[in-house]
Specification:
Largest sheet: 6 strands, mixed
Strand order of the largest sheet: 2-10-9-4-5-6
Number of helices: 0
Shape: globular
Structural class: mainly beta
Helix content: under 10%
Length: 115
């Protein structure tokens, strides 16, 4: 059973940056398309960015040009570099396999953007 652990969130001022990490218990990044998701209070979880096993990426319009998704297969870790953060980026951020979210959801990591 694959386990996913998100980390790196915190409180940051508007315009600031954070780097999130997603650590997997197994060697999954060479086999799966992965995604970062976020869920704001009272809202549905939404896809933020995705990356394939060969490195092709895609981003939601709301974060395009500000966020960068990457992975390190050897470390079984995926990253989300977030720059120029806005208050509307405030949410709990999760990672999972892209096609069907077939792994158990982790606890997520809280990102709060506020002055």
């Amino acid at each position: 059973q694959v386990q996913l652990v998100e980390s790196g969130g915190g409180l940051v001022q508007p315009g600031g940056s954070l780097r999130l990490s997603c650590a997997a218990s197994g060697s999954i990044f060479s086999l799966n398309t992965m995604g970062w998701y976020r869920q704001a209070p009272g809202k549905q979880r939404e896809l933020v960015a995705s990356i394939t096993n060969i490195g092709s990426t895609n981003y939601a319009d709301s974060v395009k040009g500000r966020f960068t998704i990457s992975r390190d297969n050897a470390k079984n870790t995926m990253y989300l570099q977030m720059n120029s953060l806005k208050p509307e980026d405030t949410a709990v951020y999760y990672c999972n396999e892209f096609w069907g979210n077939r792994f158990p959801w982790g606890q997520g990591t809280q990102v709060t953007v506020s002055s």
